[in-house]
Amino acid sequence: MNKKSRNIIIAAVAIGVFVFFMILINMKSELARQLQGPIEGTEKVFTINDKLFVVSKRKHVFTWQWSDLSIWPTVAKLTATTIVPFTNDRIVYYSASGPNRLLLTDLKATKELGGLPLPYGSKCEKVIVSSDGRFGLASMLVNKGMQENVFKLAVFDHDFKELFYVFQKDTASEDFLLYDFAVTGSDGLVAGAGEKDNAWVFISDVNSQEVLWEKTFDEYGGFTSVEFSPNGKQLFAAEKVRHILMFDAPSGQLLKTFVMNEYRTPAHQKQNISAIAISPDGKILAADTEPAGIVWFWEISSGEKIGQIYASELTVSDIAFSPDSKYLATGCLVSPEIKIWKVPHKE
């Protein structure tokens, strides 16, 4: 090897090392803080008002203040099969081993604050809340009595006084899978996403209890996540692999499609979108892709990708923006790491 060739190789190695360290420094600069979360791992991450909520795989709820994440979290330890934080510092949960009711408690789970009875023979499968935490939506399957095999969705508001049944289907006569659903904070809309032959998404009106529109897409196997924009005007539905569709919520018109890059995965794993979130200011869409553990960010108005973060070497279970839209919290399915990231913005 002559001197000139050796110098070229040395220069190339130096540039490579420089680029590696620049990437490493950039990744570290994006990480604003790391919290000690539930030891068994995280299932869901929420932001409601000024609080960051983390639901563990044991259905325990950890609560931090976004204004000061250094303060040790409040922890509610409940026996529950499904659980979500709710407005006014409360928690809604359901336990299959207890009375057949949705129950309301405080952030420390020290006392019962209310309960809503479910229909005879039913079992609550999942509860979610709107982005502002003021409305909840519960799914249930009736397996006994006059309405056996009927799937229902029911809304409750911040008063937690009554369940309003807004959607139902007979599972014995109609073949469908509902993977996720969402409710708006003010416009009285409920959305669902799943499979009915192919990818299926719909919106129902809470007041009329009628389906406003529903669509199926032959090119996708199914929709696994659905979220309303904070103002309730747009609906985002993520299919299993790398496409996120944005609809006009009232009409169902397809407005945009956000597409992730395809990447190589291990032989026993497939690329999938595990979580999506819309910033409280309505400007940014974030989505995690597994098994890469990468969170992508798009500017919603232009559809342009504005950045990405390598959130974890392990599985990212869920994501949530801070109230000011400047940070993103990521939870890990198999470890206690809760990471707080700076959200990239278009330059």
Structure in words:
This protein is mostly beta strands and 347 residues long. It has 1 helix and 28 strands. The strands form 7 sheets. Strands 1-28-27-26 form a 4-stranded antiparallel sheet. Strands 2-3-4-5 form a 4-stranded antiparallel sheet, with no helix packed on it. It has a 4-stranded antiparallel sheet with strand order 6-7-8-9, with no helix packed on it. Strand 15 and strand 16 (198-205) form a beta hairpin. Residues 11-28 have low confidence and may be disordered.
Key traits:
mainly beta, 4-stranded antiparallel beta sheet
Q: How many strands, which pairing sense, and closed or not: the largest β-sheet?
A: 4 strands, antiparallel
Low-confidence runs (pLDDT<50, min 5 residues)?
11-28
Beta percentage is over 45%
Task: For the largest sheet, list the strands in their spatial order.
Answer: 1-28-27-26
The chain-level structural class is mainly beta
Rg over alpha carbons: 22 Å
- Overall 3D geometry? globular
Chain-averaged pLDDT: 89
- In DSSP terms (H or I, runs of 4 or more residues), the helix count works out at 1
Helix and strand sequence: HEEEEEEEEEEEEEEEEEEEEEEEEEEEE
